[in-house]
Write a structure and sequence with these properties.
mainly alpha, 76% helix
């Protein structure tokens, strides 16, 4: 109707249809991915159900420093405990694993395993903090995108902006919101892996 009344050009309508088809394609792809992930989760948990997270994606306000997690890993990581047990068995003269785990060799394995765990903890910690730091700039982008959309909507209602500009502003806001959710998800995933290693 806007095109027929000369308020928008044909190119504006075509652009809107193009963006709508693109959004529908992305929505269909996202629904398929969600179904696959739901099936995998049900399979992992061993029950069929409609699973929903108890909490939303989150960021911790305060995170302990790297040394805290490394010390925790050295004290509690189950892989290191297994190596210690094998060392004790070897030192007591148990011959079940006589050729592979002499007391001298187990000491080397324990030392290497300790260093490997420390490096893993450092890697996970640094990746998690990277996503934590990204959230500051993403939040600033989110505020900008919300205000930009508000301004484009007002301009469109007054006839000062095109529908394609409004759609671009809406897509920009949706993109920033998606980016924020992805960063929070990655943060939470890395936090879980860090706690597992520690």
């Amino acid at each position: 109707a806007l095109e027929r009344n000369g308020m928008i050009a044909q190119t504006e309508r075509l652009y809107v249809e193009f963006k709508m088809a693109e959004a529908e394609r992305e929505l269909a792809n996202a629904k398929l991915q969600a179904e696959t992930i739901a099936s995998a989760l049900s399979n992992t948990l061993g029950r069929e159900s409609d699973w929903r997270p108890v909490t939303a994606m989150f960021l911790l306000a305060k995170v302990e420093d790297l040394a805290y997690y490394q010390d925790l890993a050295q004290a509690r990581n189950p892989l290191l405990s297994q190596v210690s047990l094998k060392r004790e068995l070897a030192q007591e003269g148990v011959r079940a694993q006589r050729a592979d785990f002499l007391p001298r060799r187990v000491g080397e394995l324990q030392n290497k395993a300790g260093k490997d765990i420390a490096v893993l903890v450092e890697k996970l910690y640094n990746q998690m903090m990277n996503y934590h730091n990204q959230m500051t700039s993403i939040d600033a982008s989110l505020k900008f995108a919300e205000e930009y959309l508000r301004m484009k909507n007002a301009a469109f209602l007054e006839g000062m902006s095109s529908s394609s500009d409004l759609i671009d502003a809406e897509l920009n806001l949706a993109g920033v919101r998606t980016e924020r959710l992805q960063a929070a998800y990655n943060y939470d995933l890395l936090l879980a892996r860090l706690l597992e290693a520690a």
